[in-house]
Amino acid sequence: MSDGGDIPLLLGSDEAPPVLEQNQAGRSPFLFTSDHYGRLIPRMLGDLGLPDGELVRHIAWDIGIAGVADALSGHLGAHLIAQRYSRLVIDCNRPPAAASSIPLISEATTIPGNEGLSRDAAELRRKIIFAPYHRRIDEVIDERLRLGMPTVLVSLHSFTPVYAGIARPWHIGTLYHRDTVLPLRLLKHLRAEADLVVGDNEPYAVSDETDYTIPVHGEKRSLICTGIEIRQDLIGDQSGQQQWAERLARILGEIETELRNEGVI
């Protein structure tokens, strides 16, 4: 399959486009992104040399976050922009030059379909999967700013309960780097929930070297922004996803009121 030249098409005309959107007309100040929402793999890449069991694990996507993102977007009337394709094809929250952009190993799993990848093949994944997703985020932010709409960027993720044999105690964590306006408020509200163990830049911290969405779309544009990580065993089913979406909708609604009352947005 080709485009009429020498460059093969990565996605067939009948395959899902990389970008999924919900509530495009939403008027909420919150703009949600989900870099690891889906686990699709382009047909021409097969199964990347992996058994089915690996392709449903956390190495392929952020388990549970799709359900949370959909419900949260609905509760708040907020625009959601999500990536349908697996992070194993190309990780949309990694700088393209990073070694982890197209991983050769994820946790302890070797990805055969990513071995020996030519520069052109890697660039094709960037062009067809990574670039449209981030271009769409840029377009939406540009339009919101043009219309004078306040924009608070929240990047939604989930994390494994155990990593490299070490249990992670946090139920939820905030991720940030330069901008602390929303993360500090979020930490305060989450810690007021008596049943939660809350991570401050746990289980990860944002950096220019390891992250893309928050540094590029949030910090470089001087937007109020944060990443949110929810532990996957808490959102592994629809009930958990709905409960967390409702909790976050309530908390983010309270924060929105604070920000408006203080003239921050």
Topology (SSEs and partners):
Layout: E1 19-22, E2 30-34, H1 52-55, H2 65-76, E3 79-83, E4 105-106, E5 109-110, H3 119-146, E6 152-159, E7 162-163, E8 166-167, E9 172-175, H4 181-191, E10 198-200, H5 213-219, E11 224-231, H6 238-261
Parallel strand pairs: 2-3, 2-6, 6-11, 9-10
Antiparallel strand pairs: 1-3, 4-5, 7-8, 9-11
Helix pairs in contact: 2-6
How many structural domains can be distinguished in the coordinates?
1
CATH class: Alpha Beta
User: How many separate helices?
Assistant: 6
Strand order of the largest sheet: 1-3-2-6-11-9-10
Q: How much of the sequence is in beta strands?
A: 15-25%
Give your account of this protein's structure.
The protein is of the alpha/beta class. It has a single domain (19-261), classed as Aminopeptidase, CATH 3.40.630. Helices cover 32% and strands 17% of the residues. The chain has six helices and eleven strands. A seven-stranded mixed β-sheet has the order 1-3-2-6-11-9-10, sandwiched between helices. A two-stranded antiparallel sheet has the order 4-5. A two-stranded antiparallel sheet has the order 7-8. A hairpin with a 2-residue loop joins strand 4 and strand 5 (109-110). Helix 2 (65-76) packs across helix 6. The longest helix is centred in the middle third of the chain and has 28 residues, at 119-146. The radius of gyration is 18 Å and the shape is globular. Residues 1-7 have low confidence and may be disordered.
